């Protein structure tokens, strides 16, 4: 059994050593892979931003060429004179109208750089004329196509001579079918700034992929959206459809789309930029898998290093596990003997190393435990002897209590009522003192005891003080430690009466607080009492003893009931009930208050609860 236990222990150490050697390598490799991936993506985003700015500038430059192309009619007076004449049907054209039509055809070749991108042009005169020309195909104008309600036409009128360009539209101005094109339009105005005609050119969107090809980046995906987020060009239409909701309301930024395994879509990331001139948005992006393909070599290398580290550490770990397991097993066997009460530790053997020092410490600890156990046994014997002595000592107060009752009966028989009353009060105080070690009493019993004490003091010092009792009936069943209030009343009598030439007035008041569950008992006197400085000193020093003696004949005799008594009351409450209960002192005007706060618990609930034995003092 022990052999299998040793093997399991060695196996556990072996596994721990392997993990400690391989996990750091894997963590470092993973962190390096992530860091390099982040740096690669950041660098790729910077490069794409530079390329995007170049592509956007090229697109704007090309569109500006189309913009300038629409200004050519201002330099051809034949067209303007033609447009100023009243509308004539084509059958009524003369040489002037035919010459103007030929001039419009020559417009198509005016800009060789953009001639291949313009598929045709139309001029809609304010006088009702409609003229057009087309590079290829049927040049016959479709008379059914009305443009007056088209948004681009209305926008050209609103711009009052400004250039307007739309996204890709289906052009139906000619009879042999429609074709896709961008529409660039401008309102032509005469020398009096009156509308003359709207010129529209039909631009093939093929100039955008031609500009993209000049970048010589076949892996970069390009998407161009117009101001209404309609697609003008997309090198990857599926990716463009996923970009329609990216960058809305933003002029520039970065974007990323996650791969979708169910739909076979790959992940892409890139940047976008909105043209200030055209309000178009251009998106550039690359495939994330292709971007990070070279970076995977780091993860492969990390895996190979981790495998090599595991193989190398396996041999080392097995040797270390065997070396460490022997002294540890020796300690385990010794611990089992200590559990059975045999405090005999093995003597450390071997070279001076950590395990040898551990065994030495364990040997000293076991020897110390052996001595402590012997010491505890001796103290237990002494404790039993002390308990027997305490049981014998408890007989003495009972004997004194019974003797006082006997003397009281003799005083009654000899008709000495004053002495009998004095002995009765003293006997009750002695009986209450006998309960200090174990019981709680009701507030009713404590008040009766306090009244007996007040009667005893009144018999001793005639007409020195009076006591007013204000105890609500619902508070009488609240439990309280016995003899808790007697030191407070005693302090009120001896402190308050010193130096007075009048009767001392003392009040005992109980105030229940149902909301907080607290009973507040106040013992107030109007005598000399403690000074405010003495009260502050008592609170700041945790009720330390006040070294000043009492004034008068009783001062020296009652020093122990001075601040020591108050401290005992406070500590008894804390030990019994804990925070925030306790004793506090207040001095207001000519009154001194001792305030006791205890839980508002009845005798019945205390009986059901845990009635631990309280400690009197520390």
CA-based shape: elongated
Q: Largest beta sheet, briefly?
A: 5 strands, antiparallel
Looking at how many chains there are and whether they match, the oligomeric state comes to single chain
Mean of all residue-level pLDDT scores: 76
Helix content, binned percent: 40-55%
Query: How much of the residues is beta strand, in percent?
Result: 15-25%
**Cα distance, first to last residue?**
53 Å
**Uncertain segments:** 542-561, 609-618
How large is the count of helical segments?
A: 17
Widest β-sheet, arrangement of strands: 2-1-5-4-3
Characterization of the model:
- The chain is elongated and about 165 Å long.
- Helix 1 (2-69) packs across helix 6 (207-213), helix 11 (395-413) packs antiparallel against helix 12 and helix 12 crosses helix 13 (443-460).
- It has helices at residues 2-69, 77-84, 95-107, 112-115, 151-159, 207-213, 237-243, 288-291, 296-339, 354-393, 395-413, 417-433, 443-460, 486-496, 532-540, 563-577, 603-608, and strands at residues 118-125, 130-134, 164-171, 179-189, 195-203, 221-225, 231-234, 252-257, 268-274, 281-287, 441-442, 465-470, 479-480, 504-513, 518-525, 582-588, 591-599.
- The chain is built from 17 helices and 17 strands.
- It has 618 residues and is α+β, with helices and mostly antiparallel strands.
- The chain is 48% helix and 18% strand.
- The strands form four sheets. The protein has a five-stranded antiparallel sheet with strand order 2-1-5-4-3, sandwiched between helices. The chain has a five-stranded antiparallel sheet with strand order 7-6-10-9-8, with helices on both faces.
- The two termini are 53 Å apart.
- This is Sensor histidine kinase.
- One of its GO terms (molecular function) is protein histidine kinase activity.
- It is found in: Cell membrane.
- It is a multi-pass membrane protein.
């Amino acid at each position: 059994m022990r052999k299998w236990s040793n093997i399991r222990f060695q196996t556990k150490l072996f596994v721990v050593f392997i993990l400690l050697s391989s996990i750091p390598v894997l963590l470092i490799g993973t962190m390096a892979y992530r860091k390099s991936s982040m740096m690669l993506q950041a660098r790729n985003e910077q490069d794409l931003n530079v390329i995007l700015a170049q592509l956007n500038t090229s697109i704007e430059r090309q569109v500006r060429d189309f913009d300038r192309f629409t200004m050519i009619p201002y330099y051809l007076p034949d067209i303007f004179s033609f447009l100023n004449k009243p509308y004539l049907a084509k059958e009524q054209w003369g040489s002037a109208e035919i010459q103007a039509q030929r001039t419009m055809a020559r417009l198509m070749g005016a800009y060789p750089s953009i001639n291949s991108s313009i598929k045709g042009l139309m001029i809609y005169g304010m006088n009702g004329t409609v003229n057009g020309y087309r590079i290829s195909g049927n040049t016959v104008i479709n008379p059914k196509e009305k443009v007056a309600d088209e948004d681009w036409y209305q926008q050209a009128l609103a711009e009052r001579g400004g250039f307007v360009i739309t996204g890709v539209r289906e052009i139906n101005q000619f009879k042999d079918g429609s074709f896709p094109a961008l529409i660039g339009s401008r309102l032509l105005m005469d020398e009096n700034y009156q509308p003359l005609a709207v010129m529209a050119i039909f631009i093939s969107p093929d100039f955008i992929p031609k500009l993209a090809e000049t970048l010589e980046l076949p892996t970069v995906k390009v998407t161009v959206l117009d101001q209404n987020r309609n697609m003008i060009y997309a090198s990857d239409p599926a990716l463009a459809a996923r970009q329609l909701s990216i960058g809305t309301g933003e002029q520039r930024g970065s974007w990323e789309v996650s791969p979708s395994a169910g739909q076979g879509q790959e992940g892409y990331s890139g940047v976008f930029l909105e043209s200030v001139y055209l309000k178009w948005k251009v998106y550039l992006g690359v495939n994330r898998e292709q971007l990070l393909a070279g970076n995977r070599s780091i993860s492969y290398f990390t895996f190979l290093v981790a495998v090599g580290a595991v193989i190398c550490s396996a041999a080392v770990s097995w040797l270390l596990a065997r070396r460490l397991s022997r002294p540890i097993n020796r300690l385990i066997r010794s611990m089992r003997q200590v559990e059975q009460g045999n405090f005999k530790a093995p003597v450390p053997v071997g070279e001076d190393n950590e395990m040898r020092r551990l065994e030495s410490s364990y040997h000293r600890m076991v020897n110390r435990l052996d001595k402590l156990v012997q010491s505890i046994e001796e103290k237990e014997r002494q404790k039993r002897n002390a308990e027997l002595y305490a049981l014998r000592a408890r007989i003495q107060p009972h004997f004194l209590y019974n003797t006082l009752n006997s003397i009281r009966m003799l005083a009654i028989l000899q008709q000495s009522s004053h002495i009998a009353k004095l002995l009765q009060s003293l006997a009750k105080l002695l009986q209450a003192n006998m309960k200090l070690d174990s019981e709680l009493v009701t507030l009713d019993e404590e008040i009766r005891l306090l009244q007996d004490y007040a009667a005893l003091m009144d018999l001793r010092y005639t007409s020195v003080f009076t006591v007013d009792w204000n105890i609500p009936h619902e508070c009488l069943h609240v439990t309280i430690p016995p003899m808790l209030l007697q030191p407070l009343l005693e302090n009120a009598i001896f402190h308050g009466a010193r130096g007075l030439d009048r009767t001392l007035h003392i009040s005992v008041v109980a105030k229940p607080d149902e909301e907080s569950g607290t009973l507040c008992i106040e013992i107030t006197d109007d005598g000399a009492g403690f000074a405010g400085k003495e009260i502050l000193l008592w609170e700041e020093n945790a009720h330390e003893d006040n070294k000043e003696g009492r004034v008068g004949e009783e001062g020296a005799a009652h020093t122990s009931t001075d601040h020591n008594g108050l401290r005992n009351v406070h500590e008894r409450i804390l030990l019994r009930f804990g925070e925030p209960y306790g004793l506090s002192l207040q001095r207001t005007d000519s009154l001194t208050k001792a305030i006791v706060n205890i839980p508002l618990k009845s005798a019945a609930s205390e009986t059901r609860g845990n009635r631990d034995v309280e400690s009197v003092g520390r």
